[in-house]
# Entry
Amino acid sequence: MHLLENIKEAFRSISSNLLRTVLTALIVSIGIMSLVGILTAIDAIKASLNSTFASLGANSFEIEAKGYNNGGRRGGVQAKTYPAITYLQARQYKEQLGDEAKVGISAFVAGATEVKANGEKTNPNMQVVAGDENYLLIQSYNLKAGRGFSPTELDNGSNVVIVGSEIKDKLFPKQSPINQYVYMLGRRFQVVGELEKSGSSMGGGGADRLMLVPLETGNQLPRQRALTYDIKTATTDASQLNYLTGEATGIMRAVRQDQLGQPDSFEVERSDSLAGKLDALSGNLRIGGFLVGFITLLGASIALMNIMMVSVTERTREIGVRKAMGATALLIRQQFLIEAIVICVLGGSLGILLGVGIGNAVSLLVGSGGFIIPWLWMSVGLIICITVGLASGYYPASKAAALDPIESLRFE
# Structure
């Protein structure tokens, strides 16, 4: 009963000093807002990136001939170089794996290519890549306009092309490139699709300088050397990645005719290490965000303690009256502790709501989608509010409990 009475008394005290309470609660809410906001933003960005990786990014692996791309050298020692993966082997692997995962086959046809159309020409730094029906999906490239390659175009090796945004801006600045014709590598191609702008990737232009043609068409284009085929296998189910890796290894050994007991003539490189790096990075960001929020809350707790000290001084006579009426030191201490906790919880609740909103807004501004409700950080924020209230209110409450009732009644 005494505890309930103290809670009511805390609210009466808060309502009688509303402006001071609001300002104090705002100090606490800013601290909680910074803590919850930073952690929410980190979680929202991470969730968006994980979704991007899982949509056929991180849950994937590439297969390439062992020692082929690195020149057969390891640690300065010449290693055995195996033959490159042929187009027939890549197709056999894709057919045998079936529908268990998405398999994309692509080949780099030419770099430093000049593309012409409408009397205009691009810089000689465009890249020509041949790809199958899964190439755009696995590379996470999105179409801005037009369509992908039809089965007939893929099978017959038609002269059709999907162009990047930089090529469109140079050759067709005021019109759509769809169904227009461009010239490159001695052939005329019909544009059937336009890629969304992706921005520069390590100076290579990413998808913006890409000319994507069907895989069969790439095999027919003039080139200085045989094409090197890139096989990428991806799944949306991360739990199946280990199983798929093992199955893919078995299929590729059969396709490459690797003898029993002999090492693989190819390498399987998994991309899920990106998710591990992301987890490590987000963990470091969380530590940094927690430190920033902790410093802000430290300032808020000092301000709250100062306010509570002022409150104790102002209510010295009230404390004397309560003690004269039989209130014990414990009840007086509870009164001021509960008041400090109530102020912190009110301010913290506002801070949690603002933090969740601001955190999701920040993640949206940097390009991440989706709204998350961080129940963990909300619970942590509430616990911190109560802890700050106890820490900030204990000394003022103890000071109030130790006041002499006779001296308190004389206080003016």
Summary: The first strand starts at residue 60 and ends at 65. The CA atoms of residues 79 and 351 lie 60 Å apart. The chain has two domains: 2-53+276-410, 60-271. DSSP finds 13 helices and 14 strands in the chain.
